[in-house]
Specification:
It is an enzyme of class 1 (oxidoreductase). By secondary structure, the chain is an alpha/beta fold. The protein is built from 16 helices and 22 strands.
Length: 511
């Protein structure tokens, strides 16, 4: 977990500071530990973010705990109307939000709007909480006895979000938690928290009461405080496998519910009968879009049989993509998030060459006029990649595609199932029989058939598996209702004056 740099409070500086949101108020932190937010295309400092003090963290939790006592009893319809208003405000401020996101994260303006829109879909889903949170009833299960269940909120919940989707993933978390009647502590990535804070401001404007949503910033100390605090009942996390494993173990050891979406190494299989043009376009977009900084990016493609001959055309697609700052028109690939990220990606490319993979397209050090200091890496393609190579085993999180070969669909499936990760996978084919075999035999949580990034819409739940996920319930969809609520089952019998009491029943049977 990355620590922030120590410095004095920037209150006298001209650089803007990111505030905390506690009890409905935007507060200037009293922290002495701050981190610079750097535009990855220019290396300019655009703001400073505090690492909240233990006292500020405690204040946020206390605020959320106090607010829960009234929010939990707020009518479902009233909660739903807040999120109807919230989705309207997000739509009205889409361009502003996208501009903030691009400035601090680097992705293109079009991709930034996509980031926000996929989160907006979950906000819209939260407005349907009235039907999502219904319980069950069975009448007359015994003589005059009814049994029914109700889904009630847990209390204070928390979310820890990554840098690569600073709008979408926070919107995966707090709207559903709050719509279910919980209160929430959000810790966004310290690398790009500004768009998250703007979304939080809009949530308050939409009518979320003071204390129901709180935002704190920080690194390892805040993460551990979230895991340890006895008043926090559930933790949702999206990020690296290393940190996610730590969060899951620490939070569950403290008796909390936890869901952790973690690292990935997503594969696509291409059969020779696939639609070539559509497949190649999909592969290039999914491998290199967002500079490869997606947990659902297609970082490995397995060409089956004669599909191997398509590689030169795939390289042409990759070469056609424009690398530039996200604010520039016609940009396809923006910078990676930081100079450290760029160094890691280029270091892994060098490692792939040393290990014997063929570097058929080298995206290192592209020339980007006007943005010479930016953290740019262009589309990069390796062929001849084998299991055991570091570029295959590790999540590169950059625009690097590893190409492998298999003689059959069964061989390709075996390669994927041998990889420990299970976030997403895709098959490109025109054969229904091949698709059916793939669906049944692949051991991966999210499957695309001619769909390169099979992230489900909010009617369904995100279902990564194996080493990509800890916890048995995913974010949004039906599963997250179960995660953010506790089920109470009531068995009731009502007697009227005409009821004959009969003899004492000492068994467990209801008669």
């Amino acid at each position: 977990m990355q620590q922030g740099s120590n410095s004095s409070s920037p209150s006298t500086s001209s650089i803007p500071t990111v505030k905390l949101l506690i009890n409905g108020q935007l507060l200037e932190s009293k922290s002495e530990q701050w981190r610079s937010i750097i535009n990855p295309a220019t290396q300019k400092v655009i703001a400073r973010v505090p690492f909240a003090t233990p006292e500020e963290m405690q204040l946020a939790v206390a605020s959320a705990k106090q607010a829960f006592s009234t929010w939990r009893k707020t009518a479902i319809g009233a909660r739903a109307r807040i999120f109807l208003k919230y989705q309207q405000l997000i739509r009205e401020n889409m361009q502003e939000l996208a501009a903030i996101l691009t400035a601090e994260q680097g992705k293109t303006l079009a991709d930034a709007e996509g980031d926000i829109f996929r989160g907006l879909e979950v906000v819209e889903h939260a407005a349907n909480i009235g039907s999502l949170q219904m319980g069950e009833l069975a009448s007359n299960v015994a003589s005059g006895v009814d049994t029914y269940s109700i889904n009630q909120p847990l209390g204070v919940c928390a979310g820890i979000t990554p840098f690569n989707f600073p709008a979408m993933i926070p919107l995966w978390m707090f709207p559903m938690a709050i719509a279910c009647g919980n209160t929430f502590i959000l810790k966004p990535s310290e690398q790009d928290p500004m768009v998250t804070m703007r979304l939080a401001e809009l949530a308050i404007q939409a009518g979320i009461p003071a204390g129901v949503l709180n935002v704190v910033h920080g690194g390892e100390e805040i993460v551990n405080a979230i895991c340890d605090h006895p008043d926090i009942k559930a933790v949702s996390f999206v990020g690296s496998t290393r940190v996610g494993t730590h969060v899951y173990k620490r939070a569950t050891l403290a008796g909390k519910r936890a869901q952790c979406m973690m690292g990935a190494k997503n594969h696509a299989i291409v059969l020779p009968d696939a639609n070539k043009e559509q497949t190649l376009n999909n592969l290039a977009g999914a491998a290199f879009g967002a500079a490869g900084q997606r947990c659902m990016a297609l970082s490995v493609v397995i060409m089956v049989g004669e599909a191997q001959a398509w590689i030169p055309e795939l390289l042409d697609k990759a070469r056609s993509l424009q690398v530039n700052a996200g604010v520039e028109p016609n940009t396809d690939i923006g910078p990676v998030i930081s100079s450290q990220a760029k160094a890691r990606v280029t270091g892994l490319i060098e490692q792939g060459v040393r290990e014997g993979a063929q570097l058929v397209l080298d995206g290192r050090n592209p020339q980007v006029a006007g943005y010479e200091e930016g953290n740019f890496v262009g589309p990069t393609v390796f062929t001849g990649v084998q299991a055991g190579m570091r570029i295959y085993e590790e999540e590169i999180f950059g625009p690097v595609l590893c190409v492998m070969h298999a003689d059959s669909l069964q061989e390709a499936i075996a390669i994927i199932n041998a990889n420990p990760n299970g976030n997403g996978t895709a098959l490109f084919t025109q054969s229904g029989a091949a698709a059916r075999t793939f669906e049944e035999d692949i051991d991966v949580g999210q499957i695309g058939i001619n769909v390169p990034i099979p992230v489900p819409v909010p009617l369904f739940s995100f279902t990564g598996s194996r080493a990509s996920k800890l916890g048995d319930l995913g974010p949004y969809g039906k599963q997250v209702i179960a995660f953010y609520t506790q089920t109470k089952t009531i068995t009731a019998r009502w007697f009227d004056d005409s009821t004959t009491s009969g003899k004492v029943n000492t068994t467990i049977n209801l008669k």
